[in-house]
Amino acid sequence: MDGEADGSVTVSEDSGRRRRVHGMLKLYYGLNEEGKTPEQQESLDPCDINGPHFDPELYLNKLRRECSLAELMDQETCMVKQIRSLDSDMQTLVYENYNKFISATDTIRKMKNDFKKMEDEMDCLSANMAAITDFSARISGTLQDQHTQITKLSGVHTLLRKLQFLFELPARLNKCLELQAYAQAVSSHRRARCVLQQYSHLPSFKGIQDDCHAIMDKLAQELRQKFSKPQKNKDGGTSAKDLSECVELLLQLDEPAEELCDKFLSHARSRLESDLQGLEAEIRPYPSTSTLKDASARRLSSAAAVGSPTDCSPKTSSLLSPSSNTDILEFIDRGCNEFVSSLCLVITSYQELFINHAQTGELASKNIPQMANGKLHAFVDDLAARYFSLVERRIQEEKGVGDNSLLVRALDRFHRRLQAVAKLLPGSAVPNQGTEIVVRAATERVKQYLCALQSFYMDSLTDVRQALAAPRLSVAGASVAGGGAHLGGPASGRDAPTSLPELLSSLSASILNQIKSVLASVHLFTAKDITFSNKPYFKGEFCSQGVRESLVVSFIKFVCQSSRQFCESAGDKGGSTPPALLLLLSRLCLDYETSTISYILTLTDEQFLAQHHSPVTPVTSLCAEAREAAQKLLNHYVKVQGLIISQMLRKSVETRDWVNTIEPRNVRAVMKRVVEDTTSIDVQVGLLYEEGVRKAHSSDSSKRTFSVYSSSRQQARYAASYTPSAPMDTNLLSNIHKLFSERIDIFSSVEFNKVSVMTGIIKISLKTFLECVRLRTFGRYGLQQIQVDCHYLQMYLWRFVSDENLVHFLLDEIVGSSAHRCLDPAPMEQSVIEVICERG
Amino acid sequence: DENNIINKNVLLHQAGEIWHIGASPADKAVLTTCYNKSESHCFLLRAASPPDWSSSDATRTDAGNLSCHNVLWEPMGDGKRVISLADNNALLWDLQESSTQATVSSTATLEGKGQLKFTAGKWSPHHNCSQLATANDTAIRGWDLRTMSQIYCIENAHGQLVRDLDFNPNRQYYLASCGDDCKVKFWDVRNVQEPVKTLEEHSHWVWSVRYNHSHDQLVLTASSDSRLILSNMVSISSEPFGHLVDDEELSEGEDNHQEDKSKEPLKDSVVSTYEEHEDSVYAAEWSSADPWLFASLSYDGRLVINRVPRALKYRILL
Which residue in chain B has the smallest CA separation from A817? Predict the structure, then answer.
């Protein structure tokens, strides 16, 4: 603040000083500045040394009165100083301004001279100009009338030229007509038409006009003729070009556009229809003789030439059929090349003629484009519908699944060509219909693939069945031969099982391959280079619904379904399907559950990246279904195998006279058969299923349990049963035993392992044995025979089951029951039984 | 039964092992036994008076070489006609007034390949007692007793042996059968291609199937899985929509009506499973006196008498 204040003070001081100097100079020059008020202010004080009203007397007096001597002295020196500086200032100013003044005076003097010179020249110029104007006026006056004459002459010249053209017009038109240069004629006529129209009241022009009209009428006639009979032209392309030319000319001749449209279209239609007929003729692969004759009469083409021998015999017709039935790609190609391309041509020329042309010309006002457009749409839609129906018929004939690529390529071409139509005709429904056809064909194809897969599956099952049947025959033969063949039995029984895993792997591999190949060929539909693959349908729904759901998932479902059918249909007839097949299928289903389904679905999802998130069947539910099927099949397998063994046991029990039998010498052959069959089943199951867990038992468990079974309890039971006093004890004992043993579910479902399967089979067999024994009456030796048999079974069956106590319990029951049913229950010595069993 | 005392009278049967007993529907003193004496099977008519079983006079009828194992009384008759099933013959006997004499009036023979043998039979209470159903192996056959000719045949009725049959007491064409395939099937004999209904509750052979005499939705099955199962087969009973409600009752009030409505959708279901037996149950039978009482007999000699659960009883009655 202070600094600023100081600054302002110095400035004001400085300005004050300058003003002072200025003021003094002003005074000197007598100039009056604008600032009157400060002067007035200053004037008020006579003691102001700078003021105009300065009174030296007053000032001096004042000083003298107020100041001391020293001050006065100071004042005096200061005053002297100021006066000196003012003097010097004045002197410098005078010098400076003197120079300037001198030079200014010089300049002014020079200017005065120059102006005087210029004035002279200007005077001269004005005099010259006046002379020029004078001359020019004189020249134009002389040229005036010549100019008008020239203008008139040139006008006459052009008029004469026009007239000449008009007079020559009829002749020229005639000449054009002769030369068939219609275009030139029409353009000439167009030029003259207006003039003639205007001057038609003059007789000479009238004559010309009439002549022209006559000629032009002739020309129009000729054009029309040409237009209506274009069939003479063999070549389609040039004909179309000619046609369009005709139409153009006719349009220029003011012919009604609508009529022309109709004519044009009807002509085009006839040509396109002949194309369609050609296609249709190809579609009929197995024509009846009459239609074939028709065809040959109509078109003396190759088809007829091939077709003629058909009349002779059905054999040749069957031979002929593939040749006359050209493959679909060829067909579509032909359709595209002939029909679609000429359709495109028609559309372009039509649009060129009636729509684009008309829009620029004077016709636009008459709503002709709209009318023409409507006609065109109707025409295209109609023809396209017919074409589509033909294509669809042809596609439906394409039943074979073999070469999908051909179909896809054909569809692709079909679709691509229709895109051209779409480009030409933006509002048309044609491309959409075409896409629909493609979609339909694709879904149809997927269905066919499903059928093919299913039939393939069934075929391979039949193959497997046959493969199984061959070795099984020997087993059956062995069983018929009875006990004598039991040495050969296991060997022949083993033949079948060795091939089982191979069969399984080949079956599943071939199915998987088939699925893969089907997927690959279906994948063609969504390949990148196929035009319709980026339609939303093919991106979304086709992948998820079409391929995944209706192809893959339904195939898996079909596999499960058919497997279950095996269980159900066979259930009533008692095993019409070979049990090995059941086992195989069960394993197949289980494999599906564990890996194959998820593999297939992953494969599918990878190949068909579905962007579209519609609800799809989850893998888990399919797996559950497969597992259920596997379980059912395995249960059924157990049931069937159990039944086979039980039938054997039952027959053996029912057909024997147990009362009057002889003392047992050896184990009955049936029991050996049972053990053999069980062994072979064990081998068979072991090939496909894992061992599974069994309750721990020592290696000599057969011995150990046997001793328990025979010595302690059985003896007690037999003793009880034939001493009349102790029936209560027997019941008590067996009841107590039963109380502590678990209830056995005979036909319960089994787990997916060998032991569980074998346990199931053995349970069923032994329970049957038990029930049959209870229905018979035994003699002494009958009981002993049962004892021997049971011991034999004991020796061999324990190793197959998960819990050997189960076998012991059931065999106990058998022996116990037979003891109950025995007239003379005298059990055999344990050692004798062992000897017999070991010998047998 | 009232005082829960079961009278026990022991009747000594001299001849041999008894396989089948049938009581005459007309005369309570008369019953038939079917027995075998070591190898020859006969059937015996015995007239006995309950208070004093010793004063029995028996008619012994020998069926020759045939092994007779099943004797059926005419269900509604006056105790004059009896059918015995022996091997592959069905013999119709006429009894004399005093039940002391029996003569064979007609026979029907099943012919075919192999050894055919009737395993079970049932005399239909319908059609004036002129029909008989028999089972052999897996087939069920119907016979007309007037002509002794076969009238229908259900081949492969069961996957394995057919063990027992019973006629629905109220619906004349309905027949229940059971067999070794663990299934109980219900047939309409007018259409023998497909069973009307199949039950698969047992886990071993089903030995016996019995309709309740008065409420035919109750079906009792006995199986060698040592279970007895009582099923409520409403959909194929004579009262598929529950007990018919009288008009008067309907007019009584809305509440009643609503209750009835809520009761209507009774479904076929297993009412209960009886597991008292420790061994195979071979026979089950309804009481002829009390429709809610039934008995079952198992191999271990245990006879179990049960009642239909009270809740179900009331649902059926009300």
Answer: B299
